[in-house]
């Protein structure tokens, strides 16, 4: 399980920088879920091998593993939508270089600060050469054979995973555009855009299959294959699919059937997400509440359920104007929205705070322990309280002094405003499609 990634709840084009409070609220809950999941491990509440469990608390803590995938879905939704809109409208894609620059500023500087802190405070005595220190700065700390795990940076495999998605997204959009623009109607273009996204999802799920095949387990352990970016391409694909539907609505002016259904029944998908969450609590190929469920079949079931949960929990919030009393009550509290706003800092810093509270490293006169060595090392409520307080405090500082100023720097030269919606066309009606740029 890892922590959230830096997707942000602002889109990448001028004219679309208004915050979405509902999505901020969702990110807040997901970020707190990640914190609780990791704290529960160090308090000995999550399932781990054959160690004693704590009944329903172990089961619920294990269930919070669903909190990661929605961040990938949100990231792909916001970042791909301008590209999808360009394909459907027949206009130029957003330029790649400004896109990459903004994403670099959003993701890397704050991450480098955490890397520097972790190396100096926890791992200074373990540095045995140039590459030990250089790997995390170069986003290669999980791609090295038998790479040592660096205290404080354990969840940060999501940074290189997300960065690779940023790097390839403009190219993927170009390929999708070339394929989709051969269609004669707007509806046909939308359908064509879904074909490459399906392939993208298949690649992601195939990687999960490959890395959990029993014959590949030794290789997966040596190379940390579970933490390579390809394993969540299917989550990115879900976000890109939602972005395609949203872009179609913006360009055509038509209301997709899925939007009409969600508008009429705004809470149905959330109810289904709750069902998926409960189903995922039951480890079908192991003993409930025990850590013996890490089998090939179980990993595939968990991965599929996590993806389904991510799509269901995010999808209703991508439909314009959809509201319900449940959404208003749960997603609008200011403290939750604030946590969502600073959630990238929460992701980066919460394991650093946990390591400090557990007194790891030379600062406390010891060699920092690896995760399993610290299983059950603290009282849950004590560790959760101080981890939450400390993480929010340092994340707020990171957001206001570093992340927000750098984000403003990246937006000084915005992309052109999105194109005006074209007149709605009936399915099957031919329209003139401008040539690809």
Automatic annotation (TrEMBL):
What Pfam families does this protein's entry cite? Acyl_transf_3 (PF01757)
Q: Where is this region: Disordered?
A: 410-437
Residue ranges of the TM segments: 28-49, 55-83, 104-122, 163-181, 193-210, 230-248, 268-285, 300-322, 342-360, 380-402
InterPro entries per UniProt? Acyl_transf_3_dom (IPR002656), Acyltransferase_3 (IPR050879)
Q: Which GO MF terms does the UniProt record name? A: acyltransferase activity
Q: Which domain of life is it from?
A: Bacteria
| Name the record gives this protein | Acyltransferase
Q: Which organism is it from?
A: Dactylosporangium maewongense
